[in-house]
Amino acid sequence: MTATSSGTAPAAPLVDRRTWPERLSRPYPLVMGVLNITPDSFSDGGHFIVPADALAQAKRMATEGADIIDIGAESTRPYGAQPISADEEMRRLQPILADVVSLGIPVSIDSMKPVVVAWALETGATIANDVWGLQGDPDMAGLIAQRHCPVVIMHNRDRADAGIDIMKDVTEFFSRSLEIASQAGILRENIALDPGIGFGKTQEQSITVLARLNQFKSFGLPLLVGASRKRFIATVSPSEPDRRLGGSIAAHLIATKAGAQVIRTHDVAETLQALRVASAIWDRE
User: Fold this and answer.
1) Is 217 annotated as catalytic?
2) CA-based Rg of the chain, rounded to a whole angstrom?
3) pTM score
C-alpha cells in the first residue's frame, strides 16, 4: 500500500452495501448512466476510450443527476462486438475506475468475467451488471454471493430466433438464473432483473418485451430497462443511434409505467427530466 504525502495510507473506497429495495425510495426510477470505455460499442464506441474523456463524461452524468454510473470496457453489442481478454478489459478500466468511484456515486461494473468484476469491486464498484444473468461463467454467482453486492441479472441469448415465444424464453431464463443465485447464496434483495432489450432478440421481440414488461413483476424483484438508443427504435422511426433520444425516452416512460424501477441510459439529463415530469403527472391521476 502506498502512503500519501502526509504519511498516511489512502482511505479504502467506501462500500455501498444498500440492497435494491433500500435504493428504490422515490416515486420514479433510478437513472443508471452508461459509460462505455470501448472502441466498438454500438452507440458511443471510441468516444470515451481516452481516460480524460471518460472521466469528463462521468462527471457530466454525475452533475446531471445520475444515481448510478455503469462502466463497461468490453462491447456486448449483439452484432460485431470483438471479445477481449480479462487482462485487456482491466487494462482499459485501470486508468479510470478509481477516479469514477471517487465522484461519490455508486458505480456498477458491466462485465461478464468474474475476475474483472472481483477486481472492480475491490477498486470501489459496488454493483455487478452481468449481461449473461449468472449463466455465462459458473464462478460469477459464487463471487456475487461472497461479496454480498447488488447484481443485475440480464436475459441474453447466443442469437435471436424469431420463431420462439420471447416472453416464455425470458421468464424461463430468469427462473434458471434465480435458481443459480439461490444455490449460491445470493440474497433476493440484492437482485434486479433486466429483460435485455436488443440482446438475443429480433427488433419485434424487443418491442414485445417492452409492451408486456409488467408480466415480469411476478418475480417480485426490481426491473431494470435499458432501451437507450437501441436498434428497435430505428425499425419504427429510421434513425442513427445518436438520433434516437425521443424513441429512447418514449420506451423508458412506457417501461416505467409498466413497473421498471431502474432506467439505464446514455442521456441522463433528458431521461431524468422526462421521468420527473411523467411522475408528477401520474401522481395526479
Assistant:
1) no
2) 18
3) 0.91
